[in-house]
Amino acid sequence: MSKIRLGILGGGGDSLIGVLHRVASNMYDRYEIVGGVFNPDYNQNIEFAKQIGVNTNRVYQDFESLIDEEIKKPLEERIEVVSVLTPNFLHFPMAKKLLENGFNVICEKPLTTSYEEAIELETLQKKNNTIFAVTYTYTGYPMVRHMKHMISEGELGEIHKVDIQYYQGWINPVIHDPELRKTVWRLDPKKAGISSCIGDIGTHAFQMAEYLTGKEVKSILSDLNTLYKDNTLDLDGTVLVRFKDNLKGVIRASQIATGEENNLSVAIYGGKGAYKWEQENPNFLYHLKDDEAMRVIKPGNTYVSEVAADGTKLPGGHPEGIFDAMGNIYKGVAKALRKETSFKGEFPTMRDGVRGMLFIEKVVESNQKGNIWLSMESK
Amino acid sequence: MSKIRLGILGGGGDSLIGVLHRVASNMYDRYEIVGGVFNPDYNQNIEFAKQIGVNTNRVYQDFESLIDEEIKKPLEERIEVVSVLTPNFLHFPMAKKLLENGFNVICEKPLTTSYEEAIELETLQKKNNTIFAVTYTYTGYPMVRHMKHMISEGELGEIHKVDIQYYQGWINPVIHDPELRKTVWRLDPKKAGISSCIGDIGTHAFQMAEYLTGKEVKSILSDLNTLYKDNTLDLDGTVLVRFKDNLKGVIRASQIATGEENNLSVAIYGGKGAYKWEQENPNFLYHLKDDEAMRVIKPGNTYVSEVAADGTKLPGGHPEGIFDAMGNIYKGVAKALRKETSFKGEFPTMRDGVRGMLFIEKVVESNQKGNIWLSMESK
Amino acid sequence: MSKIRLGILGGGGDSLIGVLHRVASNMYDRYEIVGGVFNPDYNQNIEFAKQIGVNTNRVYQDFESLIDEEIKKPLEERIEVVSVLTPNFLHFPMAKKLLENGFNVICEKPLTTSYEEAIELETLQKKNNTIFAVTYTYTGYPMVRHMKHMISEGELGEIHKVDIQYYQGWINPVIHDPELRKTVWRLDPKKAGISSCIGDIGTHAFQMAEYLTGKEVKSILSDLNTLYKDNTLDLDGTVLVRFKDNLKGVIRASQIATGEENNLSVAIYGGKGAYKWEQENPNFLYHLKDDEAMRVIKPGNTYVSEVAADGTKLPGGHPEGIFDAMGNIYKGVAKALRKETSFKGEFPTMRDGVRGMLFIEKVVESNQKGNIWLSMESK
Amino acid sequence: MSKIRLGILGGGGDSLIGVLHRVASNMYDRYEIVGGVFNPDYNQNIEFAKQIGVNTNRVYQDFESLIDEEIKKPLEERIEVVSVLTPNFLHFPMAKKLLENGFNVICEKPLTTSYEEAIELETLQKKNNTIFAVTYTYTGYPMVRHMKHMISEGELGEIHKVDIQYYQGWINPVIHDPELRKTVWRLDPKKAGISSCIGDIGTHAFQMAEYLTGKEVKSILSDLNTLYKDNTLDLDGTVLVRFKDNLKGVIRASQIATGEENNLSVAIYGGKGAYKWEQENPNFLYHLKDDEAMRVIKPGNTYVSEVAADGTKLPGGHPEGIFDAMGNIYKGVAKALRKETSFKGEFPTMRDGVRGMLFIEKVVESNQKGNIWLSMESK
Predict the structure, then answer these.
(1) Cβ-contact A4, A29 below 8 angstroms
(2) Residue B31 · residue B6 · CB < 8 Å
(3) Do D289 and B252 touch (CB under 8 A)?
(4) Mean pLDDT of the B138-159 span
(5) Which residues in chain C are contacts of D4 at CB distance < 8 A?
């Protein structure tokens, strides 16, 4: 099967979100990055393309050129889908022109900077019937998918309570310093829009609530905290939410939850059971029932649903992060090959392999000889 | 900087180890897969190369051809490093010829099928001074590297006790069935060599012991269990180990630890402190001290060592598995683009983005108006 | 020092709350139960007194008699403090008469059935200057006291966010059965008062919020859920709370959180740090800070505050529940002494002691002889 | 039913073990402490008896007098069972004389100071057919009893692997100080006998192994560590154990596991499932099975076995330690009654009760009025 031709807007240089999308697109051998505009500066753009191995012929000056040029190419060569990884205010103009020209889009969240813009994009998308994904990344965890699937299958019965928390503490050292808090873009309404905490992480919690239950929130009541008079954007808030049918919920989000790193936690309670899940421990899903012992669901096991299995690449007990562990070993080898400074132990060496073989042989021998001590001195 | 030219032996088709190495090699944009022998069958080999986007000109019939042809190319084009992902018994002949011809090698563990072979490889490598990595993957976790680094810096003081466990339960349903246990290659000495449990996972535990302490085990005493008389290979074992200077340790490994998935757990106790770590929860490292509260070390924080930071791509609280979460979203989009059957909710849609924007606006409005209920009905 | 003369109202028969108060009063050898009214039925009352070893001379017909008779005794013989363990509606009349007569009181929560009654008691107590405790039991945990103390010492800096959850699921199987839900006293406004969930457990969460912060809640906004139209009392609710100075909080309580047992969880975030604690794991207190590893505080260690140390009887690592473990062994012996049916293994026997001694001797011998196998056959 | 007449040898003054046994004996209202020898010094002995409310008529000079005098009393008055809480070397002479005179005994562990003594006691006990308990306290936890029961019922199938760890770190700061280590009685063979670590805690691990499996260890092989040449007693050790039928196990014990408090951890693997349990988290029992999600068993639930239920006094979610929490509140009240210095917040006051009632009323009112803010100012 041919690979999907992917274009990328943004994500150049040291951008973490760029790394994340590139690795992700590569993970199942389904995409090929064929072009993009990685950087507003054209030279840096070209430089970066070389660095990540993208043909510079399809690296463009700006997103308008990318669209204008790609549209001229025959369908079977043209970029099929474009990932939009630029600062938030650019999502709208980029996505709009892409949709107008029939491109499929993978767009970072938040979709736009206002609801009006978002609706405009949706109208366009419906008209052109393109594929449009917004990367609420947390919905990609196998255990989140398992929850959604099982809830839709009725495993929890009727849902009666939805409780989602998204607590971070990163703004704490900033907000309490009267000078420092004036300098952070997140707290500047001109750059961050009408909200800091809810706009950045509250939306993740909200999307998770609707995603998992498959139901729409009908109304909300909120209470936000800005902490200081010279700060206008929310840093913390609680939102009461109501779905239909006496289903209530609560969303709590904070950037001043001191010491919290990225604590997105989910609890969904239904008449027949409940699920609890924490993003910082994403391979553990807790299934609660009346009068039964809590079960700890983990990916890679035969008992998980097909939708979760499809998102898991390794057997049970291998956390997804093992890919990163192997990635670090490859990085260590790369440094050695390029004679860069490397840390001691960045990759296991021949010696580790040799010692391992000696270990196996001696262990078997000790056992055979009646459990005696044997030397492990190697040649 | 130019990418490193990587060749791969094995890992074709549905091979999990193949996926793992390809994703890992891609993770920091440092490698390009330029050739290989992915499959013993040449047609499947070519087919697979196309599938993963490798130029078929450098896909060879067998590893001998790969070496013979690549060696003819000028150094600046030649494959620089070869990953060996084939069945264990092929590691030795492949690595040997690669080393004889000056190639750098990344080899899956176990290095060979005997200590003699391993020593032969090491002699060759020392002579040719090539880079040779054995992929004991677990050493790549940021928290494992942090442990190693801090131990070498003396943070734990003199080490007095090393306790490593590697428990799995996968062989349990096999071993208790008299017919089934005759059919598993892992239990066939002709295919698996002299050991099952120690050879497969005990070596990981052993390597971790030497890796973390920076010390060599001087002698061992083992006690193994084969459970049934018609089974000759070990399924479970305890190995007493002695390093120098009254430093003792114990390695426990099992394939009959029913219900355990991949429970590699490490505890290193020294005069000034201790570290504990579990592979299934790889982002949490426990640092114990006399008369002080235990600390929970996590990657992505300013307080971790440089060597750990170098192996972490995202801020604190984002488990490494988040790459996989994003990978799953990309996979979902790929299915949609190729009109394959997909699960409900495989990627967040435009609607999620629209609802998110509405949520932010309504939350801010409710708060401004004195915490009143507002409708979330969207256009 | 003489023991405190304690009287008890209620708590007879199989009452769990009775067991709890008796064991608690005994724990530090400070109280002696000298009288009471354990049961409304006088004969059962007397019977129960005998059973728990209380002199029947001071077992009374009703609480009025207890007060009238005890008041006649000289001060150095008189009951000093009375524990009120009766159904909620009796707390008020009992406490009132006790206060009017100068008795000190330990009263189960809720204090009364209305705020008006509570204020009346408080007025009386202030006038007579007696000691009056309301047993919000969770404030007695050493780690809760440590939190309170350290917060008052300023360890967390200015508090900015208070988040308390009290989730239970016990009413779930009841509430969804249209017949069953009519029969539970908890859901009958005549018996349970104006609230089910908030009245029973929400108050614990609220008290904890004020207890830990040392601050009063200034205003609240609530949203409750009764789930069914024929049910009038709340089963679940969220309460927004405001303290002074931009300190906001949220209290969440539920009886329909399916599968939750008694999940009281606390999070207090301040400018310099945070505390998190869960009642079902009461020996573990989590201390978070910006840019430092989370610390896990446990009782019995030298680093905990004096107030926590004072509430801990054993060295670190011995959970408070170990008293119950020992209590169960004593119970097993009692059954054996009284020739009651007992479970296998209800107490360790002589044989366990003998085997233990053999184990020690053989272990030392094996080590001395160079780590050889020795038989554990005992005489 | 009459209470059992209990005598106690030792446990006076500040003895922790004394507190533990007294509270435990009181927990189910089955025992009455009627006499004893709490202290070698007679005056202190009498003083202590008064303090804990024991009639001084039956407080004796020494254990011989206790036995000689009690034996003269009629059976229905005589002490029925004696708890031996004295230093280890006194266990033997005391238990011996008690057994010779037909007393039942509850004896602290270790039973004696040698296997020979232990066997002598057992012979006596068999002859006189008395009840004799050795307080291996950890067997009293409800979840330990559940394990034992379910294993004996065959829930785990045939047991194949037993792994018990008992790690402490308390001796770490002592052992590394050349002067200090000479002063600790635990390391003096004259006082501590032939073993430190194995004798003190390894025996607990061993007893747990035989207790849970219901099988006897047939042979052992040990490896101990004394760390320093001038120290002769073991501080750390690993013991390989063999039961019958290819059932092997490993016991690990340490006093130099820096930072560990009292980490007794159990893992029992069988053909059909496994149990894991940790003493520092005694209310959580982990049940593992092939291809099923791990279950977390907790006391107080309907699904636990009768033997566990019998050892649990409160509903699910109330950790056993809640008795201690209530005990601390009673202690706080006692201090107030005796005008001793107390900590702020040692017991919840009338004010807490009043505020609680206000909270309930305001919460219900806010909800009824459409979720509006209400003041919490109290009278």
Answers:
(1) no
(2) yes
(3) no
(4) 93
(5) 334, 337-338
The whole-angstrom separation of Cα A49 and Cα A59 is: 7
pLDDT in tens, B220-260: 999 999 999 999 999 999 999 999 868 999 999 999 999 99
Of the candidates C293, C217, C281, C214, the residue with the CA atom closest to the CA atom of residue C248? C217
Using CB atoms and an 8 Å cut-off, which of residues 109-148 of chain A contact chain B? 109-112, 114-115, 117-119, 121-122, 125, 131-142, 144-145, 148
pTM of the model: 0.93
With left for phi above 0 and alpha for psi between -120 and 50, is residue B273 left, alpha or beta?
A: left
Tell me if chain B has a CB within 8 Å of the CB of A302: no
Measure CA A235 to chain center.
22
Domains and CATH numbers, chain D: 4-135 (3.40.50.720), 139-309 (3.30.360.10), 348-379 (no CATH)
User: What does the buried/exposed string (b/e) look like for D336-367 if buried means 16 or more CB atoms within 10 Å of the residue's CB?
Assistant: bbeeeebbebbbbbbbbbbbbbbbbbbbbebb
The distance of Cα A182 from the centroid of its chain, to the nearest Å, equals: 29
Task: Name the residue among B20, B122, B349 with its Cβ closest to that of A134.
Answer: B349
Consecutive H or E run containing D295: strand D292-297
Given a contact cutoff of 8 angstroms between Cβ atoms, the answer to whether A333 and A314 are in contact is: no
Q: Is B295 on the interface with C (CB under 8 A)?
A: yes
Give the pLDDT of residue C305: 87
Which residue in chain B is spatially nearest to D163 when comparing CA positions?
Answer: B252
Query: How far is residue B225's CA from residue B4's CA, in Å, rounded to a whole number?
Result: 45
- Measured CA to CA in angstroms, residue C125 lies from C71, C110, D333 at distances of 17, 17, 15
Nearest by CB: D256 against B161, B223, B236:
B161
Tokens of A23: 């690795």
Q: In the prediction, which pLDDT does C355 show? A: 82
Q: Which secondary-structure segment (H or E) carries A19?
A: helix A16-26
Chain C residues with CB under 8 Å of D352 CB are 134, 136, 207, 210-211
State the pairing for strand pair C285-289/C273-278: antiparallel
- CB of B222 within 8 Å of a chain A CB? The answer is yes
Among B119-123, D185-189, D340-344, where is mean pLDDT lowest?
Answer: D340-344
> Contact, A334 vs A346, CB < 8 A?
no
Asked if A186 and A196 touch (Cβ cutoff 8 Å), the reply is yes
- State how far residue D112 is from chain C, nearest Cα, in angstroms: 7
Residues of C with CB below 8 A from A246's CB? 225-228
The residue among A155, A165, A141 whose CA lies nearest residue A288 is A155
Task: Give the phi and the psi of residue A12 in degrees, each rounded to 5.
Answer: -85, 180
Q: Hey, what are B74's tokens?
A: 């000028």
Taking only the tens place, the pLDDT of each residue in D161-218 is: 999 999 999 999 999 999 999 999 889 999 888 999 999 999 999 999 999 999 999 9
Q: Residue A161: phi, psi to the nearest 5?
A: -155, 130
* CB pair distance less than 8 Å for B28 and A327: yes
Chain C CB within 8 Å of residue D22 CB? yes
Question: CA B326, CA B320: separation in Å to the nearest integer?
Answer: 11
> Which has the closest alpha carbon to A250: A221, A275, A226, A271?
A221
Question: For residue B118, what is the enclosing H or E element?
Answer: helix B115-128
Residues 6+ apart with CB under 8 A from A230: A178, A181, A182
User: In chain D, positions 230-249, which contact chain C (CB-CB < 8 Å)?
Assistant: 234, 237, 239-242
Do the Cβ atoms of A130 and A104 come closer than 8 Å?
yes
Confidence of residue D308 (pLDDT cuts 50, 70, 90): confident
State both tokens at C192.
Answer: 């349970």
User: Looking at the partner chain, which of C287, C291, C296 has a beta carbon nearest the beta carbon of B303?
Assistant: C291
- DSSP annotation of C198: I
Instruction: Tell me if B48 sits within 8 A of B71, measured CB to CB.
Output: no
Which parts of chain A have pLDDT scores under 50?
none
